[in-house]
Amino acid sequence: MGKRILTLLPALFLASAPLAGRAAAVLKNSDCLDCHSDNSLFKTNSAGKGISLFVDSAKLVASAHGTNLCISCHSDATARHPDDNKVLQPVNCAACHQRQTDSYGASVHGLASQSGQAEAATRNTMAPMTPASG
Ligand code: HEC
Ligand code: HEC
Ligand code: HEC
Q: Counting atoms of ligand 2 from 1, which one is nearest the CA of 52?
């Protein structure tokens, strides 16, 4: 039990950091997963093809991005989604990684050291929620 709490600490630390300035507005992962943990959720793209919108949160938590909030990457998601009918923008890796091809490079580790304890806890194999293109 004690060990489990320790490994969760960095995640809580990172998760609470963005709360500082705008407490009420921040959407929690559970807000998103209310809908996106449903493995039958899908949308139909303009070509008429069904695209799964299921998110395996266990996989995300176990990945190098386990400390990131959904809205850290999907930064344009608001409480009005999906009722506003605005398609969310593709995720901008470069917002956090200056050079996304340099995955073991200075930018990623610079980010980890800024956030204190993050590095030790998140040095796992990379398992992004979708196969990364770059
Ligand atoms: C009330 C249910 C619901 C909630 C809550 C919800 N979503 Fe969605 N989400 C949907 C539906 C339905 C779609 C498909 C919309 C469409 O047809 O374009 C969708 C689509 C998406 C997409 C695909 C791109 C797009 O816009 O179609 C992403 C990414 C996404 N949601 C992320 C999130 C994130 C992040 C959160 C939490 C901040 C969240 N969703 C909360 C229902 C929800
Ligand atoms: C490290 C960044 C990152 C985090 C954190 C993240 N996502 Fe994503 N997500 C992506 C990327 C990249 C895609 C691929 C499409 C794109 O570029 O927007 C994607 C796609 C999606 C899609 C569209 C379906 C699909 O598989 O292509 C949904 C829905 C979604 N994410 C919801 C979520 C939810 C809910 C969370 C939190 C539990 C979350 N995401 C956390 C990066 C992230
Ligand atoms: C909101 C900020 C954020 C976004 C956006 C983001 N990442 Fe990350 N990424 C991180 C953090 C934090 C880590 C953990 C750093 C560590 O532990 O060294 C990480 C780790 C990684 C790693 C593993 C590096 C290692 O040393 O293990 C890769 C690869 C990576 N990200 C690729 C991507 C890709 C590709 C995208 C776009 C789909 C993306 N990231 C979007 C914050 C982000």
A: 24
